[in-house]
Amino acid sequence: MDWSAAALSLRLALSGVALLAPLGIALAWPLAYGRFRGKVALEAALLMPLVLPPTVLGFYLLQGFGPRSPLGRVWEAVTGGTLVFSFSGLLLASLLINLPFFLQPLIASLGSVDRRLLEASATLGHGRISTYLRVALPLSWRGLLAGAILAFAHAIGEFGVVLMVGGNLPGRTRTLSIALFDQVQAFEMEAAHRTAFALLSFAFLVLLSTAWLRSREPR
Question: Smallest Cα–Cα separation from 28: which of 119, 88, 112, 85?
Fold first, then answer.
């Protein structure tokens, strides 16, 4: 197995989840409990990576991160490098494509919290943010953990967007899924079997953990 690709995949997934957590926690509250104009459109936009083909999403991200795009120009002016074909670009793309995997379990878990507990917190003088952080979020820890696991797992196995935004640069953007693709193309079937089995085992463990968390969710 390509251990440098495995290390890069692990680094990408861990960094992505660390950045996703505060962003997802901030977005989950209005999506779970809020009532405002445009909520449905916002939710649809955030969940779009779930249904878009990875190549379509990768193409638009490539255009948005390119050196001629406004974001690409600002990034190059500040850092001197480019977003495309870099780890930073992969990380930013990972945030966008893995956000719905983080949000869905957390929103579902927040929706199962007894509203009477939230009302009791309000009557005790706690504001919305305090109620969310001190009551609703701790009670939804299973959904939070499940979202983090799913986002982590999807980042490990993502292929299409990673290939289009990051390319295939060993040590910089070559993840484990890209390494598997290269091994198959080079007819290195023994190495491909090892890489594929590692990814398959990892996916099974992820699904097992999320199923266990769902089974422990209070009814």
Answer: 112
CB 166 within 8 A of CB 62: no
d(C-alpha 193, C-alpha 198), whole Å: 8
State pLDDT tens for residues 94-138: 999 999 999 999 998 898 888 888 888 878 777 888 888 888 889
* Residue for token pair 């930073």: 88
Instruction: Please choose, from the candidates 112, 83, 107, 67, the residue with its C-alpha nearest in 3D space to the C-alpha of residue 173.
Output: 83
- Residue 57: pLDDT over 80: yes
DSSP character string of 99-153: HHHHHHHHHHHHHTS-HHHHHHHHHTT--HHHHIIIIIHHHTHHHHHHHHHHHHH
Q: How far apart are CA 215 and CA 213, in angstroms?
A: 5
Sign of the CA dihedral with 140 first, then 146, 152, and 154 last:
negative
- Report how far apart, in Å, the C-alpha atoms of 77 and of each of 80, 107, 109, 125 are: 6, 38, 42, 47
The pLDDT > 70 percentage for the chain reads 98
Find where tokens 């870099």 sit: 86
For 140-152, what is each residue's pLDDT tens digit? 888 899 899 999 9
Three-class secondary structure assignment of 7-28: HHHHHHHHHHHHHHHHHHHHHH
Determine the average pLDDT of the residues in 33-39. Answer: 83
Domains of the chain, start order: 3-215 (1.10.3720.10)
